Amino acid sequence: MIKFSHDFLWGASTSAHQVEGGNIHNDWWQAEQGGVLKEASSQACRHYELYAEDFAIAKELGHNCHRFSIEWSRIEPQEGVFQDSEIEHYHKVIAELKSRGIEPVVTLHHFTNPVWFSQRGGWTKLKLQRYFLRFVEKMAKEFSSVVKFWVTINEPLVYSSHSYLLGVWPPGERSLFKTVKVTLNLAQAHIQAYRIIHKVYQDKKLERPMVSIAANLQAFELCRPTLKNKLAVYLRHKLYNLYFIEALLRKRTLDYIGINYYGRNLADVENWGIRHLLLDTCKYNHHPLRKNSLGWDIYPQGLYKLLILLKKYSLPILITENGVCTEDDDLKWDYIRGHLEQLNKSIEEGVNVFGYIYWSLIDNFEWDKGFGPRFGLVHIDYQNQKRTIRASARKLAEVSKSGLI
Ligand code: BGC
After folding, report:
1. Which atom of ligand 1 is nearest to the CA of 214?
2. Under 8 Å between Cβ of 321 and 263
3. Which of 321, 332, 375 to mutate to test the pocket of ligand 1 (most atoms within 8 A of CB)?
4. Which of 2, 68, 79, 81 has the least CB density, counted as fewest CB within 10 Å?
5. pLDDT tens-place string over residues 68-125
6. Which of 377, 249, 266, 251 is nearest to 317 (CA)?
7. What is the pLDDT of residue 1?
């Protein structure tokens, strides 16, 4: 039998643009209107209005924490114009969580940007960073008395690679130079944001907050043991998994390590070009594993391997996302149980993991893939916005409530 400690955090995550609906002032909405994306987010899950109903479900499922993002473009739809009514909205969201004994974990950047910010060059311009930092300071001042856990930036490398290397997310560019620039600028933004948040808490004489990023980690594995593949795995692990974490650790700007883990990346590289080394994966289904509905390899052991590697940094770890999109609810539960087993094994071997946050609480808008992929613990009927709790969610609830599998 597996046992988790009684103070372990159990919860699920969402992000504003994927669930709220009507985020008309951000760059995603703008791109959606341009018709280049598969689907538009439009009303999404109407979580902006239905959050209390959704949190009641989270409570029923035994969650004691919940991760969500504050949408910058709602707070500051035009440069320098801050909307008190939207700040008030997030006060209500947090109060609703707290009244149910659910600890908020607040993300400040989850892929979307205000249109005015992206039109001026967004994260490609270091000097524009001050706008994000002004927003961060405002949010820290507003919510410091009710929020302990912060995620400054969600998956910086997923953002920079999808938006500037692969070109599949706004602004749809394909430039290695810009990808590197944006990545470095995001690292700088986190470092400054971390210091700003801590200063706000110090000035107010509040208990130290816990500030981190949510880093997307992948289990990079070899398809065939060629030299090219070995170099690819080495580079991907160094750059993709560790670059950010190590850069922020050097500046002492992580209080915990937030990790988002989904599965395996099986490297099989066609030639020595840098894009190939960084991106090529096996096309022939060698070493087959079960897959989610987007075709991603399900690989719970990868989580264990990564956690053991992260042990050397001696920081507490929070699983800020882990999840599967599938129509097969038995597979969903297998996925969750498999990852919890591996997680527990790492804890037994001395890794300090203090919480598990599933992605996602509810089915939602999966960016360029639209509404097809279903990651939720809760099914959404997009015709009428009806919420239905999946059986897998109830099984996870038993674990959250008892700490036992
Ligand atoms: C992101 C989420 C996304 C999920 C599933 C993570 O990369 O933070 O926004 O929905 O993965 O793809």
Report:
1. 8
2. no
3. 321
4. 81
5. 999 999 999 999 999 999 999 999 999 999 999 999 999 999 999 999 999 999 999 9
6. 249
7. 78
The tokens describing 278, both together, are: 């960084």
DSSP-assigned letter for residue 287: S
Site of tokens 């956690």: 307
Determine if ligand 1 sits within 6 Å of the CB of residue 239.
no
4 within some domain: no
Q: What is the pLDDT of residue 336?
A: 98
Burial of 344-355, coded b for 16+ CB within 10 Å and e otherwise, reads bbbbeeebebbb
Residue pair 301/314 in contact (Cβ under 8 Å)? The answer is no
pLDDT in tens, 326-351: 999 999 999 999 999 999 999 999 99
Question: To the nearest 10°, the Cα dihedral for 194, 200, 206, 208?
Answer: 10
For residue 38, give the DSSP letter.
S
State the distance from the centre of ligand 1 to the C-alpha of 5, rounded, in angstroms.
27
- The span from the CA of 113 to the CA of 25, in Å, is 8
The pLDDT value given to residue 35:
83
Residue 287 lies in a domain: yes
**Domains of the chain: total:** 1
Whether residue 303 lies inside any domain: the answer is yes
**Which of 15, 324, 359, 364 has most ligand 1 atoms within 8 Å of CB, for mutation?**
359
Q: Which two tokens stand for residue 270?
A: 């066609």
Q: Is residue 221 part of a domain?
A: yes
Tally helices (H) and strands (E) across the chain.
15, 10
Q: How far apart are the two ends of the chain, measured CA to CA in Å?
A: 6
**The domain spanning residue 227 has which CATH number?**
3.20.20.80
What span, in angstroms and rounded, lies between the C-alpha atoms of 248 and 243? 9
pTM of this prediction exceeds 0.90: yes
The residue segments making up the domain with residue 35 are: 9-402
| Alpha carbon nearest to ligand 1 atom 12, residue | 366
Residue 216, ligand 1, Cβ within 6 A: yes
Extract the residue ranges of the chain whose pLDDT is less than 50.
none
